[in-house]
Write a structure and sequence with these properties.
Blueprint: H1 10-35, E1 39-40, H2 42-54, E2 55-56, H3 89-98
Antiparallel strand pairs: 1-2
Length: 125
């Protein structure tokens, strides 16, 4: 039994080409993010935090930081954190270092300027 040939209208070719173009662009963008080890939290991005406020940081091995110790996304352009936002001193220290260290302490976590953030907080175990 022969399969009948179906003629597809040319107007659908443009739709398919456009769809394939979008898919290819998304794949190239995803590869670029992975290659440069950058990730962005889409929820934070859509809520208006911008690219710098929605960047997800990775550890030295390239893994996404899901350690629960520090915020996954750190906004380094505004005074957003206080020592009371952290349970342990290491959490505050990590945020301060991600934002440029003691010289760029936008959150003022290092009150005395000695390079140690939130010294009154307990150390983690």
């Amino acid at each position: 039994m022969a399969v009948p040939k179906v003629k597809v209208p040319k107007k659908y070719y443009k739709f398919v080409k456009g769809g394939l173009g979008v898919i290819i662009a998304l794949l190239v963008a995803a590869f670029g993010l992975e290659f440069t080890e950058n990730d962005f939290d889409l929820g934070a991005l859509l809520s208006g935090k911008g690219l710098s406020g929605s960047k997800v940081l990775r550890d030295s091995d390239g893994n996404i930081n899901f350690d629960g110790v520090s915020p996954l996304v750190v906004n380094c352009e505004a005074d957003e954190y206080n020592c009371s936002d952290f349970t342990y001193q290491e959490q505050a220290q990590d945020v301060m270092e991600r934002c440029g260290g003691a010289g760029k302490d936008v959150n003022r976590l290092d009150g005395d300027g000695d390079g140690v953030a939130c010294e009154s907080l307990p150390k983690s175990k």
